[in-house]
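Wed. Picked up where I left off yesterday with Bem46 protein, variant. The coffee machine is broken again, so keeping this brief.
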Amino acid sequence: MSDYADAAAAAAGAASSGASGSDGGALPILLELLGGVTHILLQLGFAIACLAALVLLLVFVFQRRLLYVPVIPGQPAKTYQYTPNDFNMYYRDVPITAADGVKTHGWLCRSKQYTVLRSPVTIFFQENAGNISHRLPFAQMLCATVPSVVFLLSYRGYGASEGTPSQKGIELDAQACIDTVSDQPDVDGNSIVLFGKSLGGAVAVAMALKNPRRIRAVILENTFTSISEMAGKVFPFLRPIVGPGQPLNSLVRERWESLARLKEYFGDESSDEAKAFPPCLCLVSAQDEMVPPEMMERLYASIRSPRKHIVTFAQARHMDAYVRHRDQYWSTVKDFYLR
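Structure written out below (tokens, as returned):
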């Protein structure tokens, strides 16, 4: 009997020893597996951080190329496919020299039915891509609708203009354009309307704030609040670091901060400058696939003046309001001119 007891005790001891040895072997294996997973996650995180840093570097270095696109892919540079003559308009090429010496130019266009000798002028500031020849279908309709000649400014680096585009440079071009066009013998320099679409809207805001008493009216269409805010819309992964109040806004060199500029300008509504701001029409495409319509609404709200008006085109996208909502669009623009 004792032999059986001794054998059982020995077996139990062996089993207990085996179990203890099994636990002692599994824990190191588990820790090793966890360490391996942690190492992989750290490597993955490092790779993602490096990729994000590379993308940020590329965006920083190439932001001007991303923002300013003077040449549409597949089309030759420094040439115009069309001239206003191809769209049944008289025109004159007007050379412009900016304050920094860069030579640009523009086309002063006139409908063949418009015979006023010394007429009001609408200076059109274009979007970011292509050149002024791509705006001729719009310019033709504008000339046919409003009691004004139309001047299409070719930004530096665009079309036949010299130089390289930048915010500072384009603002110099726009100011030189206003000065030059107002001195043309067939233009009424006291009746200047600024019309800007998208990027051109930011140019128009800058010029209206700089020359409030020289500008008769301003039209803004589908423009943005700032480039830093647009960067987060175009590149969603940048939203946590670039945008209003974000830490890396300094990476954005081309700022075009129209909203901040307007808020600063209208900080004191009772000031003479605020009261001098010209009447403003804001045109909004509700289906804009590039600039969120709410940006235009915020710009409109920041213009603290009774002389403003906003119109939304329900089905229009970024570029097509003037054709998709043709009757509403052009009647709105014409009525604004005639007020």
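Quick read: Confidence is low (pLDDT under 50) at residues 1-22.
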